[in-house]
Design goal:
seven-stranded mixed sheet, Rossmann fold, single chain, 7 strands, alpha/beta
Length: 213
């Protein structure tokens, strides 16, 4: 896992990953996540500067955003979002209890495989019977974020997969850029779920944590 100092260096300039420019991705995430988050309390892990809090979780009843970078959190607080508050913390160390939904959007690929296993075990223990929303780019997908591996991890810990989506495609090579452009047509995102894994840029999962007895 990267350190607070490393992430603070990334945030030396605002919006280091240019996520505020990814409006198509925001639209897809809103479409996919809103049924799970509308009028619910959300713990948003790795919230960064609060862009997704504002763009995607606006219909949630309340949002607590957590990020290891205090620089990013200061910028998130400056948004003054009416339904959200933000805290600087390592999300592997905060309590997951008391929320309707945990959202880990584009952050767990920074964890090692061992840390990811510990994270999922923590969700299973502290978020009993509730929803986990998980997304990330396909980073070395055979080892890190491949569909088969993740489904095996979910089921081995007792999670129940509810829904999963392909979210976007790479812009290179040119053939993928053409596909990405076509998918920006109205409702074009519905075509993403039919793409082969090698063309997929991100994947989103909605899974239910096991119920504690």
């Amino acid at each position: 896992m990267r350190t607070a100092a490393e992430f603070n260096s990334f945030y030396a300039s605002p919006d280091p990953w240019r996520i505020t420019q990814a409006r198509f991705r925001d639209k897809v995430l809103r479409h996919c996540l809103r049924p799970f988050t509308r009028n619910r309390s959300v713990l948003e892990l790795g919230c960064g500067e609060g862009h997704l809090t504002e763009a995607v979780f606006g219909k949630a009843r309340s949002v607590v955003g957590i990020d290891i970078s205090d620089v990013a959190i200061a910028r998130a607080k400056s948004l003054s979002l009416p339904n959200a508050r933000f805290e600087s913390a390592d999300f592997l160390e905060v309590s997951f209890e008391g929320y309707d939904v945990i959202a880990a959007i584009e952050c767990i690929h920074y964890l090692s495989l061992q840390e990811r296993g510990a994270f999922l075990q923590k969700v299973a223990t502290e978020h009993s019977g509730k929803m986990l929303l998980l997304s990330g780019p396909i980073v070395d997908y055979v080892r890190q974020f491949g569909h088969k591996r993740l489904m095996h991890e979910f089921r081995s810990l007792g999670f129940t997969p509810v829904k999963f989506y392909n979210l976007s495609v790479y812009e290179d090579p040119p053939s993928s850029r053409i596909v990405a452009s076509l998918l920006k047509l109205p409702l074009g995102y519905t075509l993403l779920d039919g793409l082969p894994e090698w063309m997929v840029h991100q994947r989103l999962y909605a899974v239910q944590a096991p119920k504690r007895h």
